[in-house]
């Protein structure tokens, strides 16, 4: 039986009273909103039979510049005549579904608009739904609210200053991960722990993976800490750990010492989880893709430039004898200079963290609102919201974990194999490069990556979106990596052109794929879970990245011993294994493996 309009009106008044008096807790708005509700419910001036039940859009910002628009459908199965926008989120009702999302009280900056046709005559703002009834209201002394006010005052401008700091801190954290790759082969050799030359790759793999093992053990902890005390303290402490333990790594004279310092550095450097959340929280909704791409750009840039620095600065007494003597500290510790260079850069970034604004909210309105709305939820059976569930029940977020981890596994294995393959002898299927040669290749690849992310990626994201860009980037990466084994037949200018081009293109498509997946991850959770969510995903990815160097090192050692295989030469097996991992990651970007949040399009 159809619900009468008077019944709808009574229900509307009751729910609005609950929200206004208990949830919003802003007394000065009651005199403004209640007459409006009464006018709409009674159908004043509606005329004819078009008494459209009120549908309120509450676009409260959950510390993320409107990415979580809250839809409050008051009337039973109402069908508004138009669509209205809150930030970049389009909102409308459906004849099939009706939601009252329990996030109305998560943040006090609440805008309320009505779809009633006479909204404009009642003080609204015209065709697009009217002006807010209440300006954003925030807590004094709350850094999260201060950031919200700053974003509102920017009027849609890109926060270049904040993103610059995000890029610097991310770069300082990522440089130590791969700066050892060009000289890792020679470092393990100098430790005299490998019995044969073919065994060096296996020991190098364990050394490279020790950092990721440490990070895997602590990433969730740092994510929780970032959600509890703030992003800034975790970021600053992580950079401090780089300054100390990366310097100690350059002073190592034994294999176990190198393993231990890398393990501790990975455990204490918990920056990746909070910096992703931070990059989104300093941006308005329309710039969040750019914010996350800055993180991935700086991270990818560091993973590429790190080996370049290591290649140029390692063993300086041998490469630059006119500047560094063998009796100097850099002659006695041939791998100190690249480590010290990274640590000095991290020290400068650590000082700049003083001016880094905090973004997390430090007041209790969320908890109060949650309890109130839970009590309302018990009265209506049709309340629903996938975002109120725990992370393990958040299937859109969970489904991104597999491609995220597989892409991370592939990237780490690729970085190590490229360095080992390039410096190995041609009789083993390598290129016989020096550490300086591979450093030049990676430096050019890093520069191209920076240009791409700053000037091109935003248009790729706008045109393709996160899902398609992840698929396209992954597919192109497979094609590019397939060309590497055939470069051993080239030399001179042809080899340089092929290798430089492949390294640049592969870096670009890899960062495109990983950024798309990261955007899907962070858009699937709300702010108070974002640090923990990134911590969990970082832990999972770190386990894969810990396995990657070990597996890549063992596979590379096996390949060198089977280079003369009649069926499949060893170097081709190495790159085939890389592509199999990437193919698996590509498969998991398609349904039913990837679950996307339900988003209803405006008709």
UniProtKB/TrEMBL annotation:
Question: InterPro entries, from UniProt?
Answer: MFS, MFS_dom, MFS_trans_sf
Keywords, sorted A to Z: Membrane, Transmembrane, Transmembrane helix, Transport
Q: Which SUPFAM superfamilies match?
A: MFS general substrate transporter (SSF103473)
Topology in membrane: Multi-pass membrane protein
Which Gene Ontology CC terms are recorded? membrane
- The regions listed as transmembrane in this protein's record are 163-188, 200-222, 234-251, 257-278, 290-313, 333-356, 397-421, 441-460, 472-491, 497-520, 532-556, 576-599
Organism superkingdom:
Eukaryota
Q: Does the keyword Zinc apply?
A: no
Report the protein name in the record: Major facilitator superfamily (MFS) profile domain-containing protein
Give the species: Brachypodium distachyon
